[in-house]
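Bug report (template v2)

What were you trying to do?
Predict the complex of my protein with beta-D-galactopyranose.

What happened?
Run completed; filing so the output is reviewed.

Input:
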Amino acid sequence: MTDADATLAATPPMGWNSWNAHSCAVTEDDIRAAADALVETGLRDAGYEYVVVDDCWMADETDDAGRLVADSEDFPSGMAALADYVHDRGLQFGLYSSAGSHTCQGYPATLGRERLHAEQFADWGVDFLKYDNCGDHCGRDAVDRYGAMGEALAAVDRDIVYSICEWGQSNPWEWGRNVGGHCWRVTDDAVATWHTVDDEFGLGIADIIDRVAVLDIAAAHGPGGYNDPDMLQVGNGPDSAQSQHEPTDIERPLSDVENRTHFAFWCLLGAPLFVGTDLTGLSQDLLDLLTNERLLAIDQDPLGLQGTPDRRDPTREVWSKRLADGAAVALWNRGEEQAEIRTHVDETSVPTAGERYSVLDCWTGEQWESFGELSATVEPRDTAVFRVTPT
Ligand code: GAL
């Protein structure tokens, strides 16, 4: 490992990804608009730095040497020019391919051509690669396929964050870091709803939290390599392109409290934070949510730990995440009625050396002192989040 590797993704990567907003209809104009919007809204200055083009940027065929070619209608300027545009705005540029013969939407992908494509990505100025699991695997297992790309990326003369998108199928938390990955998806795709039912595509926000709760994978998570519960669906609903593209029945946009719980949990989990909504029409409320400094500080805490459940029952859940100066504690009301949720620092990851604690409400900014009791009245599906520091 070089020094550069040690600082790459020292905290969970943050940015914007095209898939949830634009799905397979993405164009270079969408990417430019997203880059401009990241700057204008202040999202870039809040830490969202990677602009990632997901699936469908490629032409149907590679060139004769097997290199990927940008689609000439949707990306006429080519990827190097698009990377320049993104870099000129103080942002980083990301691309997508797959560890198989084809991408999930049937475009040419990278398996067997890792070195060639890694060099191509480096030449174009790519800073982030999302590497999916679709196409023919040619009989090769996940560690072999993802390892080949990890080696190829390590061999090029450019720092490229390596985002493994293997959907958690072969326990990527066990090998993702060793193959050079900086994050690895731990579940199927998130969709813009609270719950999905059995035969529907993807997982709702509550389903993903439930899945992470039982996976017992926090030990794999830390600076330079993170469990990834998928991109944010904050701001999305039935009209988002991914909702329309996938076979799933989404009836309404995520509600305000669902968005809050979604974002609060992704921060508590120390997740990579990739906004997946169309930034050109972002409401002030959603912008305030995505730029909440108190929550972002929890996500980006230098210890890089993952939050874990302390207590779960059908209505009240307590989760916490150890931080450099204390811990974040989340009280989630998963029931359908307002609930009083109580805990004590002894039950959580808060370091308990002291007697008194400073408690910061991460939604309101209010601060008070406690002898260890923590409680909140929480609306249905909402989550109270406290930053608790021994004084
Ligand atoms: C899925 C992946 C999604 C998105 C999509 C593109 O496999 O999990 O995040 O990248 O492919 O086709």
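What did the reviewer find?
Residues 28-41 form the longest helix (14 residues). Residues 256 and 369 are 29 Å apart (CA to CA).
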